[in-house]
Amino acid sequence: MVDKTEKFNWLVRVGYFSRAILYAVLGLIALTSVGRISEGTNGIFKAIEDFPAGTAILWLMVVGLIAYALFRFCSPLFDIENEGSDTKGWGKRIGHASSAIGHLALAYSAFKFATTSSGGSGGGAQEAASGVLSFELGGMVLGILGIAFFAAAFSQGKKAVTGSFMNRISAQAPNATRMLGGAGFMARAVVYAIIGWSLFQAGFLSAGSEQIKTLGDAVASLAGDGIVFTLVAIGLLTFGLFSLILARYRIIPDLGEDGRVPSYRA
Question: Which residues contact 125 (CB under 8 A, 6 or more apart)?
């Protein structure tokens, strides 16, 4: 009989596998199809939809991305990865929450493509932001979310430089894992910073919800920047390969009765 911990384990690994597909496709279309990457996040899911069994893959991604988002929400709620409750720890946990929100948005986009022929208008993030701005403190909410993405971008860059992510990966992982992860986290730092800036502008500088960027939009915004665009695209492709390794070798915390887990061992 499969217990709750094992079910949780498998769901998270499906989440990493879904993330691997997402980033690998994003990196590939950025490198090979300027027209499609200009469509932003829609371009990613249109490309996946065109795969053999594309709709089935999209449904797998819906489940996986939701599972991954829930895993990330467990960090701020229950501190299942033992980040701590000091300023540094809460900074990491808030960064995980930002990642969770972003991946829920991506799951929703995948769901739209899995259930319709065109995936809708593609303005879901902008429409949601417009709804938030309609509330009295909506601008502050978006601005704070932007700051959270800045914190996440800093965390991603730090991981790329220090290689601290290797502490949560099995020693049996391939030798190239450190290099792939470093390049991938640095590319994600750039993308997260762009998303954060768009949210900050919409929330605190009254720039309007229409300029808020999702994952694909952030990459597309770099399309005219030559070498920077190419390096980020390659980095995102390597992050997809890195996520595939994580689907197999990531050390997943057990779910204890108190919602916490012991510290990781190298």
Answer: 41, 105, 212, 213, 214, 217
What Cα–Cα distance (Å) separates residue 37 from each residue in 34, 78, 151, 154, 217? Answer: 5, 37, 26, 25, 8
Q: Provide the 3-class DSSP secondary structure of residue 185.
A: helix
Residue 173: alpha-carbon gap to chain centroid: 22
- Residue 88 burial (10 A CB sphere; 0-12, 13-18, 19+): exposed
CB of 21 closer than 8 Å to CB of 261? no
Do 46 and 114 touch, CB atoms closer than 8 A?
no
208 and 132 Cβ atoms separated by less than 8 Å: no
β-bridge partners, 169: 250
Amino acid symbol at 85:
S
The per-residue pLDDT for 91 is 77
Closest to 155 measured CA to CA, from 236, 78, 100, 91: 91
Query: CA–CA separation, 114 vs 108, rounded Å?
Result: 10
Helices within the chain (DSSP H only): 4-32, 34-37, 41-49, 54-78, 87-115, 124-133, 138-162, 177-204, 215-220, 227-249
pLDDT band at 1 (very low <50, low <70, confident <90, very high): very low
Show the tokens assigned to 255. 């779910």
What's the whole-model pTM score?
A: 0.81
Tens digit of each residue's pLDDT (9 = 90 or more) over 157-215? 999 999 999 998 999 999 999 999 999 999 999 999 999 998 898 888 876 666 788 78
